[in-house]
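Protein details
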Amino acid sequence: MNPLLGAEQAVIGSVLLDPGQLSNLDWLAPDHFYRPAHQALFAALRKLRDDGHPALAEETVPLSWVTDAVAEASTHVRGLTATYAHTLIVACPRPAHAPVYGRMVLEGAIQRSITEHAIRLHQAARADAVQGDVEGALHYADVLAGVLSDLAQRWGTEPRPVTPATPSAAVPALPPLVRADRVAEDERFLLAVLAEQPKAMDEVVGWLRPGDFADPAHGQLYRCLGALHHRGEPIDRVTLLWETQRRGLLADGTLSSDQLAAICDGVGPGSAEWLGELVMRSSVTRTAATSARAIRALAENEALAPGRLINHALHALGPLDEVRARWQTATGRPAPTPTPAPSPTGPPPAQVHAALARSTPRPVSPSPVRPGSAPSPAAVRPPSRRHS
Protein backbone atom coordinates (compact mmCIF):
# COMPACT_ATOMS: atom_id res chain seq x y z
CA MET A 1 0.00 0.00 0.00
CA ASN A 2 1.10 3.54 -0.69
CA PRO A 3 2.29 4.98 2.67
CA LEU A 4 0.47 8.27 2.12
CA LEU A 5 -2.78 6.50 1.26
CA GLY A 6 -2.43 4.39 4.38
CA ALA A 7 -1.90 7.50 6.51
CA GLU A 8 -4.97 9.23 5.05
CA GLN A 9 -7.11 6.17 5.68
CA ALA A 10 -5.78 5.86 9.23
CA VAL A 11 -6.61 9.49 10.06
CA ILE A 12 -10.20 9.18 8.86
CA GLY A 13 -10.56 5.79 10.50
CA SER A 14 -9.31 7.11 13.85
CA VAL A 15 -11.90 9.89 13.86
CA LEU A 16 -14.68 7.50 12.86
CA LEU A 17 -13.67 5.30 15.80
CA ASP A 18 -13.11 8.16 18.22
CA PRO A 19 -14.73 11.55 17.44
CA GLY A 20 -12.69 13.10 20.24
CA GLN A 21 -9.57 12.81 18.09
CA LEU A 22 -10.80 15.78 16.04
CA SER A 23 -9.67 18.07 18.86
CA ASN A 24 -6.12 16.81 18.28
CA LEU A 25 -6.29 17.48 14.54
CA ASP A 26 -7.40 21.13 14.33
CA TRP A 27 -4.14 21.97 12.54
CA LEU A 28 -5.02 19.53 9.74
CA ALA A 29 -7.22 20.86 6.91
CA PRO A 30 -9.39 18.88 4.46
CA ASP A 31 -7.33 20.07 1.50
CA HIS A 32 -4.24 18.44 3.02
CA PHE A 33 -5.67 15.10 1.90
CA TYR A 34 -4.84 13.89 -1.59
CA ARG A 35 -7.97 11.86 -2.35
CA PRO A 36 -11.17 13.88 -2.86
CA ALA A 37 -13.17 11.26 -0.93
CA HIS A 38 -10.91 11.71 2.09
CA GLN A 39 -11.14 15.50 1.81
CA ALA A 40 -14.94 15.28 1.82
CA LEU A 41 -15.06 12.82 4.73
CA PHE A 42 -12.71 14.85 6.92
CA ALA A 43 -14.66 18.04 6.19
CA ALA A 44 -17.93 16.19 6.94
CA LEU A 45 -16.61 14.90 10.27
CA ARG A 46 -15.58 18.42 11.24
CA LYS A 47 -18.99 19.75 10.29
CA LEU A 48 -20.74 17.09 12.38
CA ARG A 49 -18.50 18.03 15.30
CA ASP A 50 -19.23 21.74 14.88
CA ASP A 51 -22.96 21.03 14.61
CA GLY A 52 -22.90 19.18 17.93
CA HIS A 53 -23.52 15.65 16.72
CA PRO A 54 -24.90 13.39 19.49
CA ALA A 55 -21.94 11.04 19.11
CA LEU A 56 -19.75 13.62 20.86
CA ALA A 57 -21.76 13.33 24.07
CA GLU A 58 -22.10 9.54 24.15
CA GLU A 59 -19.60 7.19 25.66
CA THR A 60 -20.23 4.62 22.95
CA VAL A 61 -19.88 5.78 19.38
CA PRO A 62 -23.23 5.31 17.64
CA LEU A 63 -23.42 3.96 14.12
CA SER A 64 -25.07 7.23 13.11
CA TRP A 65 -21.64 8.93 13.44
CA VAL A 66 -20.45 6.90 10.47
CA THR A 67 -23.62 6.98 8.40
CA ASP A 68 -24.13 10.73 8.91
CA ALA A 69 -20.51 11.42 7.94
CA VAL A 70 -20.92 9.39 4.76
CA ALA A 71 -24.21 11.14 3.96
CA GLU A 72 -22.70 14.60 4.46
CA ALA A 73 -19.58 13.79 2.44
CA SER A 74 -21.69 12.29 -0.36
CA THR A 75 -23.15 15.73 -1.06
CA HIS A 76 -19.67 16.76 -2.31
CA VAL A 77 -18.27 13.60 -3.90
CA ARG A 78 -19.78 10.55 -5.55
CA GLY A 79 -19.31 6.88 -4.83
CA LEU A 80 -18.94 6.99 -1.04
CA THR A 81 -20.57 4.10 0.81
CA ALA A 82 -20.75 2.91 4.39
CA THR A 83 -18.66 -0.07 3.29
CA TYR A 84 -15.75 2.21 2.40
CA ALA A 85 -16.11 3.99 5.74
CA HIS A 86 -15.72 0.67 7.54
CA THR A 87 -12.70 -0.04 5.32
CA LEU A 88 -11.16 3.13 6.74
CA ILE A 89 -11.97 1.99 10.26
CA VAL A 90 -10.19 -1.30 9.69
CA ALA A 91 -7.20 0.60 8.24
CA CYS A 92 -6.61 2.42 11.56
CA PRO A 93 -4.30 0.46 13.87
CA ARG A 94 -4.70 2.76 16.89
CA PRO A 95 -7.08 5.75 17.10
CA ALA A 96 -4.85 7.38 19.72
CA HIS A 97 -2.13 7.72 17.08
CA ALA A 98 -4.26 10.10 15.02
CA PRO A 99 -1.88 13.12 15.46
CA VAL A 100 1.01 11.07 14.04
CA TYR A 101 -1.10 9.87 11.11
CA GLY A 102 -2.14 13.48 10.54
CA ARG A 103 1.49 14.54 10.52
CA MET A 104 2.12 12.08 7.71
CA VAL A 105 -0.81 13.50 5.74
CA LEU A 106 0.51 17.03 6.27
CA GLU A 107 3.95 15.94 5.08
CA GLY A 108 2.46 14.65 1.83
CA ALA A 109 0.50 17.88 1.40
CA ILE A 110 3.67 19.95 1.85
CA GLN A 111 5.48 18.01 -0.88
CA ARG A 112 2.53 18.31 -3.28
CA SER A 113 2.02 22.02 -2.63
CA ILE A 114 5.68 22.88 -3.19
CA THR A 115 5.74 20.79 -6.37
CA GLU A 116 2.61 22.48 -7.75
CA HIS A 117 3.87 26.01 -7.07
CA ALA A 118 7.32 25.22 -8.49
CA ILE A 119 5.61 24.05 -11.70
CA ARG A 120 3.62 27.30 -11.86
CA LEU A 121 6.78 29.35 -11.40
CA HIS A 122 8.50 27.44 -14.18
CA GLN A 123 5.55 27.90 -16.52
CA ALA A 124 5.40 31.63 -15.74
CA ALA A 125 9.12 32.00 -16.43
CA ARG A 126 8.79 30.26 -19.78
CA ALA A 127 5.79 32.41 -20.70
CA ASP A 128 7.68 35.59 -19.74
CA ALA A 129 10.61 34.49 -21.90
CA VAL A 130 8.23 34.34 -24.87
CA GLN A 131 6.61 37.68 -24.12
CA GLY A 132 9.79 39.52 -23.15
CA ASP A 133 8.52 40.20 -19.64
CA VAL A 134 9.44 39.30 -16.05
CA GLU A 135 6.37 40.22 -14.01
CA GLY A 136 4.72 36.80 -14.13
CA ALA A 137 7.85 34.99 -12.96
CA LEU A 138 8.47 37.46 -10.15
CA HIS A 139 4.83 37.26 -9.04
CA TYR A 140 4.85 33.48 -8.81
CA ALA A 141 8.22 33.58 -7.06
CA ASP A 142 6.60 35.75 -4.37
CA VAL A 143 3.66 33.35 -4.20
CA LEU A 144 5.99 30.38 -3.77
CA ALA A 145 7.97 32.18 -1.04
CA GLY A 146 4.71 32.94 0.78
CA VAL A 147 3.58 29.32 0.49
CA LEU A 148 6.88 28.12 1.92
CA SER A 149 6.53 30.45 4.91
CA ASP A 150 2.96 29.31 5.53
CA LEU A 151 3.92 25.64 5.29
CA ALA A 152 6.79 26.22 7.71
CA GLN A 153 4.35 27.68 10.23
CA ARG A 154 2.01 24.72 9.82
CA TRP A 155 4.87 22.27 10.20
CA GLY A 156 6.17 24.11 13.26
CA THR A 157 9.58 25.15 11.94
CA GLU A 158 11.31 28.46 11.31
CA PRO A 159 11.43 29.38 7.60
CA ARG A 160 15.03 30.20 6.73
CA PRO A 161 17.22 29.41 3.72
CA VAL A 162 19.49 26.45 4.41
CA THR A 163 22.11 25.10 2.03
CA PRO A 164 21.77 21.34 1.49
CA ALA A 165 24.43 19.44 3.43
CA THR A 166 25.02 17.15 0.47
CA PRO A 167 24.83 18.09 -3.19
CA SER A 168 21.34 17.45 -4.51
CA ALA A 169 20.72 15.23 -7.48
CA ALA A 170 21.57 16.85 -10.77
CA VAL A 171 18.65 18.78 -12.21
CA PRO A 172 17.99 17.90 -15.85
CA ALA A 173 19.31 20.52 -18.23
CA LEU A 174 16.87 23.19 -19.29
CA PRO A 175 15.52 22.83 -22.82
CA PRO A 176 16.61 25.64 -25.14
CA LEU A 177 14.88 28.85 -24.14
CA VAL A 178 12.50 30.39 -26.61
CA ARG A 179 13.80 33.44 -28.43
CA ALA A 180 17.34 32.12 -27.79
CA ASP A 181 18.62 33.58 -31.07
CA ARG A 182 17.22 36.99 -30.17
CA VAL A 183 18.80 36.85 -26.73
CA ALA A 184 22.21 35.95 -28.21
CA GLU A 185 21.89 38.82 -30.69
CA ASP A 186 21.10 41.28 -27.89
CA GLU A 187 24.14 40.07 -25.96
CA ARG A 188 26.48 40.46 -28.96
CA PHE A 189 25.11 43.93 -29.66
CA LEU A 190 25.64 44.98 -26.04
CA LEU A 191 29.23 43.71 -26.03
CA ALA A 192 29.93 45.57 -29.27
CA VAL A 193 28.58 48.82 -27.81
CA LEU A 194 30.67 48.34 -24.65
CA ALA A 195 33.79 47.74 -26.73
CA GLU A 196 33.28 50.76 -28.98
CA GLN A 197 31.94 53.39 -26.56
CA PRO A 198 34.48 54.32 -23.85
CA LYS A 199 31.91 55.45 -21.28
CA ALA A 200 29.36 52.70 -21.92
CA MET A 201 30.59 50.45 -19.10
CA ASP A 202 29.62 53.11 -16.56
CA GLU A 203 25.96 52.59 -17.51
CA VAL A 204 25.82 48.87 -16.70
CA VAL A 205 28.75 47.91 -14.49
CA GLY A 206 26.79 48.56 -11.29
CA TRP A 207 24.14 45.90 -11.89
CA LEU A 208 25.05 43.65 -14.84
CA ARG A 209 27.10 40.53 -14.07
CA PRO A 210 28.81 37.93 -16.30
CA GLY A 211 26.36 35.29 -15.13
CA ASP A 212 23.47 37.28 -16.61
CA PHE A 213 24.57 36.31 -20.12
CA ALA A 214 22.92 33.22 -21.57
CA ASP A 215 26.03 32.41 -23.61
CA PRO A 216 28.97 31.62 -21.27
CA ALA A 217 31.41 32.94 -23.87
CA HIS A 218 29.61 36.29 -23.85
CA GLY A 219 29.77 36.31 -20.06
CA GLN A 220 33.52 35.76 -20.14
CA LEU A 221 33.95 38.55 -22.66
CA TYR A 222 31.94 40.87 -20.43
CA ARG A 223 34.21 39.85 -17.55
CA CYS A 224 37.21 40.98 -19.62
CA LEU A 225 35.53 44.31 -20.30
CA GLY A 226 34.84 44.69 -16.59
CA ALA A 227 38.45 43.96 -15.73
CA LEU A 228 39.72 46.63 -18.13
CA HIS A 229 37.20 49.11 -16.75
CA HIS A 230 38.11 48.29 -13.16
CA ARG A 231 41.82 48.87 -13.82
CA GLY A 232 41.10 52.12 -15.61
CA GLU A 233 42.66 50.91 -18.85
CA PRO A 234 41.34 51.94 -22.27
CA ILE A 235 38.77 49.67 -23.89
CA ASP A 236 38.86 48.92 -27.60
CA ARG A 237 39.07 45.83 -29.78
CA VAL A 238 42.86 45.58 -29.39
CA THR A 239 42.96 45.81 -25.58
CA LEU A 240 39.98 43.48 -25.37
CA LEU A 241 41.67 40.86 -27.55
CA TRP A 242 44.78 41.10 -25.38
CA GLU A 243 42.74 40.64 -22.18
CA THR A 244 41.01 37.55 -23.55
CA GLN A 245 44.40 36.08 -24.37
CA ARG A 246 45.76 36.84 -20.88
CA ARG A 247 42.79 35.02 -19.34
CA GLY A 248 43.34 31.94 -21.50
CA LEU A 249 40.04 32.26 -23.32
CA LEU A 250 41.68 31.95 -26.71
CA ALA A 251 43.80 28.97 -25.72
CA ASP A 252 40.96 26.92 -24.24
CA GLY A 253 38.59 27.61 -27.15
CA THR A 254 36.09 29.67 -25.18
CA LEU A 255 36.53 32.48 -27.70
CA SER A 256 38.38 32.96 -30.98
CA SER A 257 39.84 36.09 -32.48
CA ASP A 258 37.35 35.77 -35.34
CA GLN A 259 34.41 35.71 -32.91
CA LEU A 260 35.73 38.77 -31.13
CA ALA A 261 36.23 40.58 -34.44
CA ALA A 262 32.67 39.70 -35.53
CA ILE A 263 31.29 41.18 -32.31
CA CYS A 264 33.29 44.39 -32.60
CA ASP A 265 32.87 44.98 -36.34
CA GLY A 266 29.94 46.79 -37.84
CA VAL A 267 28.43 48.11 -34.63
CA GLY A 268 26.15 51.12 -34.93
CA PRO A 269 24.91 53.51 -32.28
CA GLY A 270 23.21 51.85 -29.33
CA SER A 271 22.31 52.37 -25.70
CA ALA A 272 24.29 50.12 -23.37
CA GLU A 273 21.77 50.69 -20.58
CA TRP A 274 18.80 49.62 -22.70
CA LEU A 275 20.62 46.60 -24.10
CA GLY A 276 21.79 45.69 -20.60
CA GLU A 277 18.17 45.69 -19.43
CA LEU A 278 17.30 43.25 -22.20
CA VAL A 279 20.07 40.93 -21.03
CA MET A 280 18.91 41.31 -17.41
CA ARG A 281 15.32 40.51 -18.39
CA SER A 282 16.46 37.26 -19.97
CA SER A 283 18.56 36.51 -16.88
CA VAL A 284 15.55 36.93 -14.58
CA THR A 285 13.35 34.48 -16.48
CA ARG A 286 16.20 32.01 -16.93
CA THR A 287 17.08 32.12 -13.22
CA ALA A 288 13.43 31.74 -12.25
CA ALA A 289 13.11 28.64 -14.43
CA THR A 290 16.31 27.17 -12.95
CA SER A 291 15.14 27.82 -9.37
CA ALA A 292 11.74 26.30 -10.10
CA ARG A 293 13.28 23.12 -11.49
CA ALA A 294 15.64 22.82 -8.52
CA ILE A 295 12.74 23.21 -6.06
CA ARG A 296 10.65 20.67 -7.93
CA ALA A 297 13.53 18.18 -7.76
CA LEU A 298 13.77 18.77 -4.00
CA ALA A 299 10.02 18.25 -3.52
CA GLU A 300 10.11 14.98 -5.44
CA ASN A 301 12.75 13.59 -3.07
CA GLU A 302 10.61 11.54 -0.69
CA ALA A 303 13.54 11.04 1.68
CA LEU A 304 13.75 14.78 2.43
CA ALA A 305 11.98 15.80 5.64
CA PRO A 306 9.46 18.66 5.27
CA GLY A 307 11.43 21.10 7.43
CA ARG A 308 14.57 20.61 5.37
CA LEU A 309 12.57 20.64 2.14
CA ILE A 310 11.07 24.04 2.97
CA ASN A 311 14.40 25.56 3.97
CA HIS A 312 16.28 24.10 1.00
CA ALA A 313 13.56 25.44 -1.30
CA LEU A 314 13.97 28.91 0.20
CA HIS A 315 17.71 28.59 -0.44
CA ALA A 316 17.00 27.66 -4.07
CA LEU A 317 15.06 30.92 -4.46
CA GLY A 318 18.12 32.90 -3.33
CA PRO A 319 19.70 33.33 -6.80
CA LEU A 320 16.42 34.68 -8.14
CA ASP A 321 16.19 37.19 -5.28
CA GLU A 322 19.70 38.42 -6.10
CA VAL A 323 18.97 38.79 -9.82
CA ARG A 324 15.66 40.51 -9.05
CA ALA A 325 17.39 43.08 -6.85
CA ARG A 326 19.78 43.99 -9.67
CA TRP A 327 16.91 44.07 -12.17
CA GLN A 328 15.12 46.60 -9.97
CA THR A 329 18.31 48.66 -9.77
CA ALA A 330 18.69 48.58 -13.55
CA THR A 331 15.10 49.62 -14.24
CA GLY A 332 14.77 52.06 -11.34
CA ARG A 333 11.78 50.18 -9.96
CA PRO A 334 11.34 50.26 -6.20
CA ALA A 335 11.48 46.96 -4.40
CA PRO A 336 8.01 45.62 -3.59
CA THR A 337 6.75 46.37 -0.12
CA PRO A 338 7.10 43.18 1.87
CA THR A 339 3.80 41.67 2.89
CA PRO A 340 3.45 41.88 6.67
CA ALA A 341 3.79 38.55 8.35
CA PRO A 342 0.43 37.12 9.38
CA SER A 343 -0.48 37.47 12.99
CA PRO A 344 0.09 34.33 15.01
CA THR A 345 -3.47 33.04 14.58
CA GLY A 346 -2.28 29.65 13.39
CA PRO A 347 -2.14 26.48 15.41
CA PRO A 348 -1.73 27.03 19.15
CA PRO A 349 1.35 25.49 20.78
CA ALA A 350 -0.53 22.42 21.94
CA GLN A 351 -1.67 21.66 18.41
CA VAL A 352 1.79 22.31 16.97
CA HIS A 353 3.12 19.87 19.55
CA ALA A 354 0.58 17.33 18.35
CA ALA A 355 1.61 17.93 14.76
CA LEU A 356 5.23 17.35 15.69
CA ALA A 357 4.42 14.25 17.71
CA ARG A 358 6.38 11.17 16.83
CA SER A 359 5.65 7.55 17.49
CA THR A 360 8.28 7.30 20.23
CA PRO A 361 7.54 4.96 23.12
CA ARG A 362 5.74 6.72 25.90
CA PRO A 363 3.43 5.71 28.75
CA VAL A 364 -0.15 5.60 27.54
CA SER A 365 -2.85 6.27 30.08
CA PRO A 366 -5.72 3.79 29.88
CA SER A 367 -8.80 5.17 28.23
CA PRO A 368 -12.34 3.83 28.31
CA VAL A 369 -12.95 1.34 25.56
CA ARG A 370 -15.78 2.16 23.25
CA PRO A 371 -17.55 -0.82 21.78
CA GLY A 372 -16.46 -1.16 18.22
CA SER A 373 -13.96 1.70 18.49
CA ALA A 374 -10.57 0.65 19.82
CA PRO A 375 -9.58 -2.70 21.30
CA SER A 376 -7.87 -2.92 24.66
CA PRO A 377 -4.06 -3.16 24.52
CA ALA A 378 -4.13 -6.80 25.57
CA ALA A 379 -6.85 -7.78 23.20
CA VAL A 380 -6.15 -9.26 19.85
CA ARG A 381 -7.38 -7.06 17.04
CA PRO A 382 -10.69 -8.46 15.80
CA PRO A 383 -11.22 -9.01 12.10
CA SER A 384 -13.84 -6.25 11.97
CA ARG A 385 -15.12 -3.35 14.08
CA ARG A 386 -18.67 -2.52 14.89
CA HIS A 387 -20.55 0.56 16.00
CA SER A 388 -23.50 0.31 18.31
User: Anything to note?
Assistant: The chain has three domains: 3-93, 105-171+284-331, 180-282. Residues 105-171+284-331 form one domain. Residues 156 and 353 are 8 Å apart (CA to CA). The mean pLDDT is 84.
